[in-house]
Amino acid sequence: MQSFSGIAASPGIAMGRLRIIDRRRTVVSEYPISSESVAHETARLAQAIADTRIELESLKSRLAETSGEDSLFFIETHLMILADERLVIETSEIIRTGMINAEGALRRTLHRYRETFARIDDPYLRERISDVETVIERVLRSMTGETEEPLPQDEGQLIIAAHDISPADMLQINRNNVLAIITEIGGRTSHAAILARALDLPAVMGVDDITDLLLDGAAVIVDGLSGTVIIDPDQETFQSSLRRKQHYEYIEYELLKTVSLPAITLDGHSILLQGNVEIPEEGVSVLGHGGSGVGLYRTEMLFMNRAFMPDEEEQLAMYRLMQLAIAPHPLTIRTLDAGGDKLLEGIDHTEELNPALGVRAIRLSLSMSAEFKKQLRAILRVSADGPVRIMFPMISGMEEVRTAKALLEEAKRELIASGTPFDNAIQVGVMIEIPAAVTVADLLAREVDFFSVGTNDLIQYTLAIDRSNEQLSHMYQPLHPAVLRSLRRIVRAAHEAGIHACLCGEMAGDPLYLPVLLGLGFDELSMGAGSILRVKQILRRCTLERAIRIAEGCFAFSTAVEVDMYLKSQITMDVAESID
């Protein structure tokens, strides 16, 4: 028996036979060329890109027939990367100045992109380098003539292991015989992981060197709950894992019974449970897990990996795919949250000493008003098809809100002039994620239709903690008294102005925090699809009156550790009483 540890990327436990798929990076050599060969190598690069585009277009047509139009997001993204002139220009320049072959130059270009993405703090955006890598690998295979091993279709109950799994691979998996996936690279926020969760396919990622071992055909257990892979398990381990699998599936079965039930407390108080998404497949998963729409649609993916900003029509097409995926439920679209460490290739960047506090999110959008209005017009146009809300990120004060709303009004007038329909009463909200916004929350509430708290950044900025810094991760405390007081102030300001208070950070998806957030008075919680049923289950077992008492009790303590101990003791007490 051998045991491997990785990242628990998609929950669930599966048992089957291991099938290793060759998805290793294409091996290429870098070698010097003569000046006479530069034009030839540049032409080889251009031809390989053209051939790859044809290959992707063919794949797009096949997937449209089998998976539907809303599953083409990834292919469209990869086609956009291929269409980026910067990829050709930069690689051609490396060929010319470095006097090296096209394959070697393309590898150098990829290395540059990796360095750029590695500087991004946001894990969702940092993982988007995988799209660039997937595209460049396709181009390299075209140049070298290597073929990609097809996925197994009818070979029994298999667990696939590969160096990496692309989104296209995921969409072509035959769910009747593939039970789980294992990869050597990737994490929870990679597109493969997002799709695995949307497809309810257990996955463990970041398992070092598993494809290098001679294990094809071996019995394997994939534990997507703990991030463990066990090869050739002994009898005791197999039985233990089987019990865990049965227990997990029983709990999931019981949770699924609540999919169609309302998110309401025992004393009749309802709250809206929604999903955080960035691709249409996640929208489908939100509804499948009992969600009531999307509380946070991240739009950054549309703007990444390209030399030019997306035009209005392209954005409209993507927003419509998302809306179709969750219809007839509401869709909250966050405008571009980029800049700082979230670099975009399509705009010029000034070097900043502290990018986390620099030109980012709404500040970036307001600095390029023409591009911002393209996004606003696209959002307005999709609002004609169903309920849509607009949300501005990283607001610090009234000036930003008023300027953004003025641009929104300009966009409305332009659509009216062209006879384009939209919802003139579309709701406009702001994200409360920095202390300045908390302090002036009463003023902001007069200008908008709803608040949405981004606790990930709010906690980070309030406590001056970089949550990606391993030395400080223990100080990232959602229950810190300063954070709790901020949340209370936000909700009170919203309700005094007669608007909804929503929360879309990671706190929303943790059942432990549900009594506190409910007791503080939040009207909407938005989270990953997989968390919705668990939060709903806790919600339906408690009363608003009890949650208010628990929330008020949290303010009697002066440290996060004390609040955590108190909260867990109250939940334990409730569980014991329910058993009695």
Provide a descriptive summary of the structure in words:
With 580 residues, the protein is an alpha/beta fold. It folds into three domains: 2-20 and 178-255, Glucose Oxidase, domain 1; 35-144, Enzyme I, Chain A, domain 2 (Orthogonal Bundle), CATH 1.10.274; 257-579, TIM Barrel, CATH 3.20.20.60. It has 22 helices and 16 strands. It has helices at 38-66, 73-83, 85-98, 102-118, 123-126, 129-144, 167-172, 191-198, 235-256, 280-288, 312-326, 362-367, 369-382, 398-417, 435-439, 441-444, 455-463, 481-496, 514-520, 532-541, 544-554, 560-579; strands spanning 2-5, 7-10, 13-21, 158-162, 178-183, 203-205, 219-223, 228-231, 272-277, 294-298, 331-334, 388-392, 427-432, 450-453, 500-503, 524-527. An eight-stranded mixed β-sheet has the order 1-8-7-3-4-5-6-2. An eight-stranded parallel β-barrel has the order 9-10-11-12-13-14-15-16, surrounded by six helices. The mean pLDDT is 88.
